[in-house]
């Protein structure tokens, strides 16, 4: 059933009642996953799953499950062989033979393909037919047990194998495997209902080598050795109902640490790292205590496991009772910088344990609630752990991020509601991807989505108070835990799912407040608010005339109507005013409390009650205003541009105690390069009580100001004397003290100051010699022998400082860069970099921070023309086998090189890496970096932009990345950045006139067929991908790569195909195309055994014939009947007449009907492709009679 | 009899072979003795009734006699030392003769035989003086509890410490300067060496030697090198306590350190390296590149264990001398240990 048909009913239901109605005609209660063989050498997995389901409708005869990449050998329902069809339309979104190259078309097709298998719409890749013997059984709504044998060979997604190529057994080599993926990706490694809303209990069994440990969800019931004692089986039981998407697995030779503070918590890490693990996790129990206390709820699972693995997909992945972390988060006690980051990750994962794993979501549009709550309680933890300053700083940072993103890209919609499926209603028409489904989202968008979600949660807190907020959470949790203990009442389990409406209802029940306007503004609408503020002081009336304008016409903005807090600091104190922002009132009069006449020698009270002395000489004698702040509490998602005089910003910086205000004023002061600003900034720098991050940003601001004032600047370079005073020896001011990082605040300042200083420029726009010498001296005299902490980050920052000091080389008529004409300063810098980089080889620093900085610095030198621009060095560092941080830094340099030097070769190298690198994160990251720093953009002329590249990228997102949602979306992002939404301009005009009208998405359908399609098949209109596939036999890419990537046969969904087929027949087609179309269509119809039995290597999946449109819904299509039973021994011919039901007549009828029409084309085709003829010969036969054609394994070659 | 023979042979100087004039007094001395022995042999032959003898047979007999006497002397000395004396007594000789199977009782009768020829004692030649070893200072006399027959003390320079270190430099600036440049030199030398001996990359195509970069080598398990603290850091972690350091103690430590470097740098090249190593460059660095022989960091627990056994202290051990020695041994252990 097409999503369009389903969505409205779901929406109605959501408005109507709070109960959860499953989109599936059955209820899953229990699932067994048994993996009895894992081969690290071959990277393969063999096992079976058993799902226990209760039909909820009487006539259930098909069961749809999710499964990707798995070979399904055999399906049995209650011990009876069952026929099944495996069809994954997302493998290839648009047919490779299509000449279509416009992104609009692709995005629609992709969204359609994803929803065609979306479990939340009741769909799935695997469609199992209930044997007719069981129909009676089903009618009585009795239990069905579905047993599926599957295997997985060299999975490209879902499960990631890390097998280092050293000597020794797998355990000695530290080989491990873990599940990974973005959103619901469990279908990649075992067949399941891959939805967050289908909960069941679990039994998980993994048989692994005796030296390995299998970590999975739930309680470890027992481990049983096999008879030969060489293997053992881990039995896990998860009695709390959990969605398949929250099931995970990690197997490896882990070292095990039972948490000394909480015995139910166990930590796992790779060999050798135990000391680091001990230190890293020693903090975790405090996070537990915090969450349990604020939520007044025990941790819902009986145990918790943390696993630290290499080549992680994401830094933190939370699953039911288990979190998978990147091993790179581990650190020793000597590392300062990583510690807070790692702790944050731990806290984040734990917050998601409560909201995300234990409490799951009803549908994708409810995702924001979970992300919001987990992000919000994580924020509370931050506030408690790192203090209010850090918390407010973080909120500000997140707010800035979301504001920047939305203003740049367009709004982020938290709660998308899709009504009717009409294009006009599309809430995300500004985006180049669909937001209907998590798997179509750009990764960056999803990051921002999470960010916005927790900010909105904070807005709700502002509205209803934290106490109520926590009560709501507690209510959700206690409902869920009651439901989870109902072992035999699976209908109760839906209480463990959270929905937007349910959440809002809880809020109104608990708080009694109406937050509907707030929700409407931030959740149901996208966009942020952009304020422009300015003021005038009316002396006569003693009134502040504040003007606040809004920009709500630019993309990503929205209009704000409602209260807005304004804080005015006057001589007599600080006063809050709540203004009402309305449609047409811009001006607001705020009466002032104090007289402008200054009361000499009187202390000025601040907002926090503190009274301070101020030097008021700078201020305007007529006005009592010290500074004004708009929306100081960040209770609107907004960007404020406020105009006030420089002295007001300076007062704000010096005396306002809120870190956000201080930061805002630092940002504003950049525009006022005056000695007064300079003084204010230096004072802040020296003030120990001031928040260290503020001081750090003051450094950079000071550098900017100094550069603007370069002609009038007196005294030593900015910050130099300050640094000397703070960090150098008393007796010899040019020598820095030996390192002592006991005080973290001064450590961070010490790190940052030289970096900022290096940005100083003299009148010739060069870095002053004095500064460079100073930095070189810092490096020279750096002495860490007596420090308790590692100085690797500090040294890395010193290299960054050196890089910052580099200015473009003075080049005389483009001479070649050689050593001889090297600038002496650069020579010194290069000397340091060489030494550091070489020392790293002998004595590596933590996470190779120094290598990373060195690589960046070398790229800076290259870019500035001091060193010949050459990517060879970076390419060697980007190889697999280097630490991931180094690789990313090197790749970044290569990406930059590609852009600056417009190198086609490097671009190819990068694209090749995107396709072939073993580490998913690196592949994702390259795409990401290419998108951020593109070699060219849409409207740019570039030699790189050619047809081959378009084809290559198209192929990458179309089929090359089908194993990883995130990667595919990344490829889409890149394609969008390079070519935009419409057909890339570098392509020649389409010859056939078929794809001319591309502006509107719907127009890709030939107008002649739309009425027919709508009439005949509802989904056609909704499914632009039902556009004809053009057989791209000349496509150079379709043959080579794709076939290697997917090594299982796919059985095509005949329903979609045939309806599509019919459409095509109605269409006036060009002769050149029609020649091939029938043949390809037919071959797609050949019943193929799905996977597993693929014994002949020549039998490749037929890529080009993959169906774009798989709008299979609940409705029983007569054409379903090309389903075929699969024999237990895959190769044997197996005929089961019983499968052909009463529908079969209908089915045959259809086929015959259009077979006739196509016959003539077929003959032509045969002549042309004689080499194909053997296989094709069979086609008519199989086609006309699917039942008898089961033995033919459709080795139809791709054209 | 040895005595007798010796005294007997003492006469008869300047006989046949005296023609050769030897320059060396020691040689003269020995030649004279030998000649005396020949005289003794000749007279014994005469006694036995020989009229003439070939020179070769006389020489052979002389040689036999000499070895016999030497053997008696050697054995007698052994017996005397066996009984913890330095001077052989008559009884030692007797025991020796008995041991050699000589009937001692026949000796007095033989001495009183009638046809005995009397040989004149050899002329008194000067005992050759052994050249005096260069003495440095006065030999210490034996302390009262050691009997005088025990050997004398060796020359004082062989066992008494010679204080050679300079006044420690205490100027903070100079010290820091020195520490920094020394470390820098070592680092540079080491990296250059590494770059010379291994594969390199260069930023300049035309010149590969000025800024040689050691080639990037992928690891099989990259996270281990990246995450595990280096051994140097481990050591620091153990050593460093959380006490606040002030500039004063800092200076002292540093001064100590530098002075140590200097005092040892003259004599002990190897040691110097270790001292420097403790500045920044640890010996474990060597482990890195001799991975085939020594364990790599992969085997990090063993190294840790080793480190605990042999604390490699650098800056926190006040007595200069001992610290130097201690480090020497421990660093050697570190190199050869694992």
Automatic annotation (TrEMBL), chain A:
Region Disordered, as annotated, extends over 1-23, 1067-1199
> InterPro entries annotated for this entry?
Aminopeptidase_N-like_N_sf, ARM-type_fold, Ig-like_TAF2, Peptidase_M4/M1_CTD_sf, TAF2, TPR_TAF2_C
SUPFAM superfamilies found in the cross-reference section:
ARM repeat, Leukotriene A4 hydrolase N-terminal domain, Metalloproteases ('zincins'), catalytic domain
Please list the residue ranges annotated as the Transcription initiation factor TFIID subunit 2 TPR repeats domain: 646-1004
Question: Which terms are listed as keywords in the entry?
Answer: Initiation factor, Nucleus, Protein biosynthesis, Transcription, Transcription regulation
Q: Where in the cell is it found?
A: Nucleus
Please identify the protein, giving its name as recorded.
Transcription initiation factor TFIID subunit 2
One GO cellular component, as annotated: transcription factor TFIID complex
* Spans through the membrane: none
Quaternary structure note:
Component of the TFIID basal transcription factor complex, composed of TATA-box-binding protein TBP, and a number of TBP-associated factors (TAFs), including TAF1, TAF2, TAF3, TAF4, TAF5, TAF6, TAF7, TAF8, TAF9, TAF10, TAF11, TAF12 and TAF13. Interacts with TAF2C1. Component of the TFTC-HAT complex.
Source organism:
Callithrix jacchus (White-tufted-ear marmoset)
One family from Pfam that matches here is TPR_TAF2_C
Q: What does the record give under GO molecular function?
A: chromatin binding; RNA polymerase II general transcription initiation factor activity; transcription cis-regulatory region binding; translation initiation factor activity
Positions of the Transcription initiation factor TFIID subunit 2 Ig-like domain: 526-644
What is the gene called?
A: TAF2
Q: Where is the composition biased (Polar residues)?
A: 1093-1102, 1129-1138, 1182-1199
Q: What is its main location?
A: nucleus
* Record-stated family: Belongs to the TAF2 family.
Compositional bias segments (type: Basic residues): 1144-1171
Q: Does the keyword Nucleus apply?
A: yes
Q: Name one GO biological process term.
A: RNA polymerase II preinitiation complex assembly
Q: What does this protein do?
A: The TFIID basal transcription factor complex plays a major role in the initiation of RNA polymerase II (Pol II)-dependent transcription. TFIID recognizes and binds promoters with or without a TATA box via its subunit TBP, a TATA-box-binding protein, and promotes assembly of the pre-initiation complex (PIC). The TFIID complex consists of TBP and TBP-associated factors (TAFs), including TAF1, TAF2, TAF3, TAF4, TAF5, TAF6, TAF7, TAF8, TAF9, TAF10, TAF11, TAF12 and TAF13. TAF2 forms a promoter DNA binding subcomplex of TFIID, together with TAF7 and TAF1.
